[in-house]
Structures are given as structure tokens and as C-alpha cells.
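pls design
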């Protein structure tokens, strides 16, 4: 269950970036830059949790979070799945409160 939830959180954070049908793949370097930007991640997590405003990335995150939590990632490539796993791991380590809230909020949908 935790692994499935991890996929959901990663998908939520990066859905707008990684799984967008009309967007190019995100480089590992761009992903690393996004993960190091605490302000950006905090903004996306607040959106996903319904605690703040959403930009287009945040809106996609909220849309796909329930799907990813169920273990699905529509049209994600193996690279995207690997990147999603990387993001989930980052959130678990660096944002434990938000991780816990996201698991509670999205696990039941």
C-alpha cells in the first residue's frame, strides 16, 4: 500500500511535468532542480492538499493523484515512472508531514 501511495504522490507532484501528453519529457537535471526548490515544492504540495492556490502543474497533480495512488500512471514511460519514484522518495524524506496528509487524503479516493 505504501508503494502504491508513493506512486500517487510522485504522480501528483510531477503529473503536470512528466505525464502531460503534449509536453516533452523532463530531463533528470530539470527534475533535480525542481526537487531542490523548496518554495516550488511547498506550493505544489499545498495545492495538492487543498491548502493553497493551484497553478496548472498543481491542478494536474490534484487530478492525477487518486489515479497514481491506485498504482496507475496514464501514458507514463519507464523514465517517467523512475522519476516519479525519485520524487516520492524525496517527499517522504523531506516533507514527512505533507506526505502523511497526502496519503490520508488520496488513499481513499
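designed seq:
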Amino acid at each position: 500500500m505504501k508503494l502504491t501511495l508513493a506512486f500517487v504522490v510522485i504522480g501528483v507532484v510531477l503529473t503536470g511535468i512528466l505525464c502531460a501528453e503534449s509536453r516533452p519529457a523532463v530531463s533528470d537535471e530539470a527534475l533535480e532542480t525542481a526537487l531542490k526548490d523548496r518554495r516550488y515544492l511547498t506550493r505544489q504540495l499545498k495545492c495538492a492538499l487543498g491548502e493553497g492556490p493551484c497553478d496548472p502543474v498543481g491542478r494536474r497533480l490534484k487530478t492525477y493523484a487518486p489515479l497514481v495512488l491506485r498504482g496507475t500512471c496514464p501514458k507514463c514511460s519507464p523514465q517517467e515512472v523512475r522519476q516519479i519514484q525519485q520524487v516520492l522518495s524525496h517527499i517522504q524524506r523531506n516533507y514527512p508531514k505533507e506526505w502523511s496528509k497526502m496519503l490520508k487524503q488520496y488513499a481513499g479516493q
